[in-house]
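hey so u asked for the seq, here:
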Amino acid sequence: MINLKKLVSILTILATICAAAEEAKENGGGGFTVELIHRDSPAASPLYNPLLSRRQRMSIAFHNSMNRAAAAADSSAASVRVLPDPKGTYLIRLSVGAPTPAAKLAVADTGSDLIWLQCCHPPVHDQKAPVFNPNDSLTYKPVPCDSKACSGLPRSRCAAAASGGGGGGGGSNTTCLYSATYNDGSFSYGELATDTFTLDVVSGGKNASFPDIIFGCGFKNYFENNDTEVSGIVGLGSSPYSLINQIGGARFSYCLVPLSNLNASSTLHLGHRSAVVHGGPGVVSTPLILKPPRNFYYLTLLGISVGNQTLNLVDESSSRAVPKGNIFIDSGTTFSFLPADLYLRLEEMVRNSISLKPMEPNPRRFLRLCYRDLGAEDVPIITARFDGGGELKLKAVNSFVDIGDGVGCLGFAPTKGIPVFGNVAHTNFLVEYDLEKMVVSFEATDCVKWKYK
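ran it, structure tokens below
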């Protein structure tokens, strides 16, 4: 016999979700903005550790950046099933499920494709963040094994249904299991499912809800760095399983505040309408390149200039063209990495352009070119020249970092792996990814004050 009260409740929830979906579509057409929280923000991040010095925080960020760069080199080979380091830089607030959405704080990462959250089954470590209980959501549905969503996900497999989620599992008696393994030893394993995701909007309308978002409901999870306050990862990468592609937005953009002002929040903008003033003064655009396994967004770097000194990646007299997609752009990597020979030449050009005497090399210092009492006025403009004629001018805030104790260091490092254009270089730019035209654009912006208009 049908429980009339429960039926009315379900119909009410479905009506609410449909209305929210229509509003989200309208928001997606115009755009809406959510908060990005830097993991070291003393004002908003639960991961902030007041006992760490600035130098210790920068050292941790550097080693996390190295791990992500190494992971990108590994995952460029289709035979290596290792995903990027999960310790991204920015966190995003969202809620999952209905009728009472469960609030979560997850890593927002352009270097990851899958969304996954820690679920109610006991995690491997002592999880402090509230885990998601699928039994509390009437809109939770396991993804059946015979679906395209399951067969299209790398490393998926079938098993007997493991969850008692309120939405049921369709006509299949088996469910789809996912597995995400990261190069630092972190992992997540569990059930692939769908549910309603609600994003906490800070401008551009009411909170935006999206039904039937595919995500991993992690029954076994482990963060190597013991980030017990984090509920999971929200992938913003280029695969069909990322949040960006699932909500149907043609564009997304972010504006990252400087490391010196982490009491202010950065922002992530989602929607079809552009946030960048294309054709405006100072807007730099360059093609986006996708490569298997489609975790990362790549750019084509042609050269670097410091003052009147120019460094081309390939000698102009050579007939060899610069390889397309030779550097990946990553919001989750703090520092930028270049091939060793290119880095050494950049370091020499910067050293020649700064009148101050650099500090003596120190193997215990994680960055190579450092100065004491370095002012912004002492730092030359570094111009990164990209395919398509884009010349991105990097100011001191984009090229040098304060590592504490009055020491400023060049925020680039050598690598044997794939070069990385890290997020310090994105600071105070509105960075927009246009996934229809496959172009990324940079517009110089005061990100502390920026709001979508």
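Residues 1-29, 75-82, 162-172 have pLDDT under 50 and may be disordered. Residues 115 and 162 are 19 Å apart (CA to CA).
lmk if thats what u needed
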